[in-house]
Amino acid sequence: xxxxxxxTGANSGIGLALxxxxxxxxxxxxxxxxxRNTQRAEAxxxxxxxxxxxxxxxxxxxxxxxxxxxxxxxxxxKARYNRLDFLYLNAGxxxxxxxxxxxxxxxxxxxxxxxxxxxxxxxxxxxxxPNSDGLQEVFATNLFGxxxxxxxxxxxxxxxxxxxxxxxxxxxxxxxxxxxxxDIQHRxxxxxxxxxxxxxxxxxxxxxRHKNNQGLFSSVTCPGLVMTNLTYGILxxxxxxxxxxxxxxxxxxxxxxxxxSSDNDSNGVCFPIDQIRIFTNTFTLTPYNGAxxxxxxxxxxxxxxxxxxxxxxxxxxxxxxxxxxxARVAGSESKISQFDIRIWx
Length: 345
Ligand SMILES: NC(=O)C1=CN([C@@H]2O[C@H](COP(=O)(O)OP(=O)(O)OC[C@H]3O[C@@H](n4cnc5c(N)ncnc54)[C@H](OP(=O)(O)O)[C@@H]3O)[C@@H](O)[C@H]2O)C=CC1
Ligand SMILES: CC(C)=CCC[C@@H](C)[C@H]1CC[C@H]2C3=C(CC[C@]12C)[C@@]1(C)CCC(=O)C[C@@H]1CC3
Hints:
- With 345 residues, this protein is α/β, with parallel strands linked by helices.
- It has a single domain, classed as 3-Layer(aba) Sandwich (Rossmann fold).
- It has a six-stranded parallel sheet, sandwiched between helices.
- The longest helix is centred in the middle third of the chain and has 20 residues.
- The protein starts with a strand and ends with a strand.
- 45% of the residues are buried.
- The C terminus is likely disordered.
- The structure holds NADPH dihydro-nicotinamide-adenine-dinucleotide phosphate (NDP) and ligand LLCNDLXC.
- The ligand CC(C)=CCC[C@@H](C)[C@H]1CC[C@H]2C3=C(CC[C@]12C)[C@@]1(C)CCC(=O)C[C@@H]1CC3 binds next to helix 4 and helix 5.
- The site of the ligand CC(C)=CCC[C@@H](C)[C@H]1CC[C@H]2C3=C(CC[C@]12C)[C@@]1(C)CCC(=O)C[C@@H]1CC3 has 16 residues, from helix 4 and helix 5.
- It comes from Nothobranchius furzeri.
- It holds the Pfam family adh_short.
- InterPro entries: 3KSR/17beta-HSD (IPR052834), NAD(P)-bd_dom_sf (IPR036291), SDR_fam (IPR002347).
- Its EC number is 1.1.1.210, 1.1.1.270, 1.1.1.62.
- It is found in: Endoplasmic reticulum membrane.
């Protein structure tokens, strides 16, 4: 049966790499690239068709930062497709980022160094602004537009006898302390990106709670640090080249990826709800590698109750079970009782 997959922000970076990988995994897919820029979307489609001739790749105009655009795209999706198996909520922005150099050097010579490179905690601020709908741009793009899209697509996503999956591209930068329920748009703070990603983690949990019984399952993934337009907006490319050796040094510790589940569906099958990198493997993260977790959510719909995937050197392989019980799930401490370890390469 042909599966319908829609990816937001599919024309570059992780989204585009995800599309490439999905088409490689499943030739039967009907893939819809939902992008705000038609020219870039057409270029992405052409590139995908060059590597996967004969693939079914559709284009859809969608600006997730605009309420009107989301509403009309949702109408178009409902008119075009009679099912939606996977909805990848990947589009995201980080406008006007600034790195706190002082905090970087303080963190670099402290015990917090691994955490700093993995999460950028205390390092990054952004300047947000209201958009034409009067919403804060980061909140509207990274979270609200996607939320509205899901709500509008419920007739497709919650069909009896058919399971659909939502897969969010979240971030290790998501932090509980950056998010406030009194200021969900993060109007007052300087970390709207961190706040929006934490809010998407929370939303995913809430969607699971309320929609699992209607056949809708939501997962959150973290791609790690990936070199894309987004990261090239943080530092100029020559600086990235300069700090590459530091990145390599820090990332040489390990790369552990955890995909596990805490919500059972009514059939006793668990669906992965979160993916976490415990150590960082920062500079090796190409968009292809960054899309790993997202692709992992696609074919593993009927995953075993706990899937814990380890990609690491010997040392961290043995260390992983020690750190795992302390893994963070959307801001709360979570205990993992069983795991199935696979060593990659
Ligand atoms: N790179 C990294 O290290 C990390 C990235 N992420 C997340 O991964 C996701 C993809 O980012 P990444 O690939 O790195 O960066 P890119 O900038 O390469 O990709 C972002 C994509 O989102 C699209 N987009 C942005 N705003 C909108 C909008 N309003 N409507 C529709 N599409 C939009 C962009 O389109 P356009 O080309 O038109 O701008 C682009 O296709 C984001 O959610 C990001 O937060 C998470 C953790 C780490
Ligand atoms: C010498 C010097 C100024 C180094 C700065 C390094 C930082 C630019 C990076 C260290 C950790 C990185 C990181 C991200 C961006 C770049 C860093 C802050 C992200 C915030 C990018 C987007 C994400 O979603 C998560 C990343 C976490 C790690």
